[in-house]
Amino acid sequence: MLEILSMNFMQNALLSGILVSVACGIIGSLVVINKMGFIAGGIAHGAYGGIGIAFFLGFSPLLGASAFSLLLAIIIAYITLKDKNKIDSVIGAIWAFGMAFGIVLIDLTPGYNVDLMSYLFGSILTVSDMDILFMLGLDIFFIAITTLLYRQFVAISFDMEYAKLKGIRTNFLYYVMVCMMALCVVATIRVVGLILVIALLSIAPLIAAGFTKRLGSMMVLASIISAIFCILGLMLSYYYDLTSGASIILIASICFFVFAFLKRV
User: Fold this and answer.
1) CATH number at residue 99
2) What distances in angstroms separate CA 60 from CA 21, 50, 52, 55, one per listed residue?
3) Which distant-in-sequence residues (6+ apart) come within 8 Å of 234 by Cβ?
4) What is its main location (predicted)?
5) Residues 233/244, Cβ–Cβ less than 8 Å
6) Three-state secondary structure readout of 87-127
7) Given pLDDT bands bounded at 50, 70 and 90, which one contains residue 11?
8) Of 253, 1, 245, 6, which Cα lies nearest the Cα of 126?
């Protein structure tokens, strides 16, 4: 372990894994409780369109993915609030459009050939100081918003109709939740990639839900569990020369299956 910590890129990888775990613990708990996993998947895959725009126009992929993901989040939130029956078809269309649009733009980018695999399956070992600052800023933002709106999030998560009758601005809070989820997805793409982002968002909260029914406790426990997955996955990838993002999700998946089996027994 000391050997791993002596290398700067591994220090950045571990720190980014912990920071993303905090974000996934908070947002993932909201995703699991509100059954928004498919929405997160649509935004994650659609975000590739923002990455394609960024490379084509020559600015930061992180900025492009963030802006494009927020746009997709607002569109999805608006349509699903109007007609929840259309959610599957709308998200499927956005999912396909974002991926195709991003790939075409990258193909058209002159003189540059981006490594598609690093965005599909993550590239935590190449996380930069700017990426870490972005993740830290998101964590602070998520903690602040969740603390400020905690009671309202609990209300709409467990009974949206009752919350609406109590005068809570449910539509506004839904938009906030989906936009927070979009930003969390962008940060998580750097760690495990857009293909595996749903697993990191959902597995730890699902395990945490087996130990507590309180949303706040679930968020804290899910963050800790997710951080453990990231650390163990990084160690596995380092010692056996494996893809880091896939190693993290492999550890998480095995733990989830063991937990589900033990709980059933």
Assistant:
1) 1.10.3470.10
2) 23, 10, 10, 8
3) 4, 10, 13, 14, 17, 124, 244, 247, 248
4) membrane
5) yes
6) HHHHHHHHHHHHHHHHHHHHHHCCCCCCCHHHHHCCCHHHC
7) confident
8) 245
Measured CA to CA, the distance from residue 51 to residue 46 in angstroms comes to 10
Q: Kind and range of the H or E element at 26?
A: helix 8-33
- Full domain range(s) for residue 194: 2-264
How do residues 117-133 score in pLDDT, each as one tens digit? 677 777 777 788 888 99
Backbone φ and ψ of 213, nearest 5° = -110, -5
| Structure-block tokens of residue 74 | 């607002």
- Say how many Å lie between the first and final Cα of the chain, rounded: 35
Length of the chain: 265
State the total domains in the chain: 1
DSSP assignment of 50-80: HHHHHHHHTS-HHHHHHHHHHHHHHHHHHHH
Side chain identity, residue 265: V
SS3 call for 259:
helix
For 77-113, write each residue's pLDDT tens digit.
888 887 766 677 778 888 888 889 988 888 888 765 5
226-244 in b/e form (b: 16+ CB < 10 A) is bbbbbbbbbbbbbeeeebb
Q: Buried (b) or exposed (e) across 127-160, using 16+ Cβ within 10 A?
A: beeebbebbbebbeebeebbeebeebbbbbbeeb
Report which of 53, 18, 17, 44 is spatially closest to residue 178, judged by C-alpha positions. Answer: 44
